[in-house]
Design a protein that fits this description.
alpha+beta; globular
Length: about 600
Amino acid sequence: MGIIEDKLQHLPTNPGVYVMLGSDGQIIYVGKAKNLKNRVRQYFFNTVKTEKVMAMVKNIADFYYIIVPSEIDALSLENNLIKKHKPRYNILLKDDKTYPYIKIDLKEPFPTFSVTRKIKKDGAKYFGPFMGGISVKSVLEILNLAFSVRPCDKKLNPEKAIKPCLNYHIKKCPAPCAGFINKEEYDALVNSAVDFLNGETAYAEKLLKEKMQEAAEREEFELALRYKENLLGLDKIKLKRITSLNKFLNADVLAYRANGIYSTVNLLIVRNGRMLGSKNFAFESATLSDGEALSEFISRYYKKDSDIPDEIISATEVADTDLLEGYLKKEFGKAVSILTVKQGVRKQLADMAGVNAEEHLLTAVDKIKHKNDMTVTACKTLQEKLALKNYPKRMECYDISNISGVDKVGSMVVFIDGEPDFDSYRRFKIKTVEGADDYKSHQEVMRRRLARLSSDAEKFPKPDLIIVDGGKGQLSSVKAVFEEFNITDIDLISLAEREEEIFLVGNPNPVILERRDYCLKMLQRIRDEAHRFAITYHHSLRGKRSLSSALDGVKGLGKVKKHALIERFKDLSGIISATAEELKTVQGIGDEMATNIINFLTKEGLK
């Protein structure tokens, strides 16, 4: 510990971020500090530590620090570094579910309600998230049936009425597009629908019952049954109401539980006084206390597209609450109160979260152990079995997809510590290879990738292991590119699909792992993911090419304008349903070209 002891003597007392390094130079932990000297020395001299912290400290070979102006700057930098490097001892949140919201933009002349999974600062209103057995599609249908708000998202021109669609004739829309309802009347419907989404369900229930009765009297029994089904869905929404809660309560309720090595957080989501649902997170934690663990969770959990609550509630005192509140205000522009509750209905909610966290901890430990077997442990074992130079923390896998040499594409998928890092995936359109030449296509992709090691290392950091989908031939072709770039510090292997043979550079014989081997399963996961990603891109290009060909007969429509149309309308049905005014919103499409497109589609019997 000579290097560390020397550095500990010269630590500053400024706020900042400290970065712990393992013996291989990899970042294993990132932390923030109000006082770097006090905080960092605590790891090495404080005798009270959890097992996980002690395990981490044993693996620290070196550290460095970055001084920043304030604690909030330290928290922000810490977050950025953790997102970038994904250190193994930090809390890494991976919630695989993005729950839906309902969005409405009240600035539009005749606004419509739509489903989205991302919240943006665009002036629109968002309601949700919808979870815990409530279907967002059912809620939209209740809005449509009870309040007659239009179900389509067609851009309307109040100055130009058009023929109403089928929704008007089946009484699902008041047809503002045709001028059958004015803006004031439509706004009244929208306001009632917004009240419903804010928790006022009585009026919607009354309307649905009246409409069900009227449909039954007209002997429209199928329609009456739909109203009845939506009334049952409305009952489900009402059951989410906790009667003792203030209907304006918008809160996230947190509870943390740990057993010294593993830990869990339960998050209850309350919006407009309704319990919308619950999320569980399980991880290995290197934090020193429950309060610090909750503080770290809060700083990681909320992102730019998150639904930020008015309150964050916990029965455990959260460390650095003033700092966190300042950080949330700075990052999201919203004042959030972080409350430690001791009594009342908020304490009951916190206790409920605690029970869920306890239960999840009991079931999560085995899942974490199994997950480690499939990921981090598999990476360590793979290094041993294949005699790799590096621990394969960052693995990149490449695949080529084409049909008869057309629409050739390459994919690059990235796994960090055995798990997919979706943000780092990249796609390549093959530019220089004629025909279906898999070897040359791999070489083009690899040249373009390796060139980024020096030109854009920030977005394309150096991998520890590159995996090529294929056999000896694909491996040899990529190895030649490695030699061109004088790459000697990145491991290279290929995986042949039929027999699942692993080919290594310099070894004429493949390595065969047992089918149940976790190392092989991990390689199969990354290979299959690269294949899926390549196929998806290939199908996308082929679909756009087919659409482009379908528009070949339009007079004066060149390649650039075709591409602009495809980007705007996505598919042929979108172009077919577009009006001349909508076509003219595309750059380069004027009155004459819009007329040519409509005339061509009409002539072909498509419009």
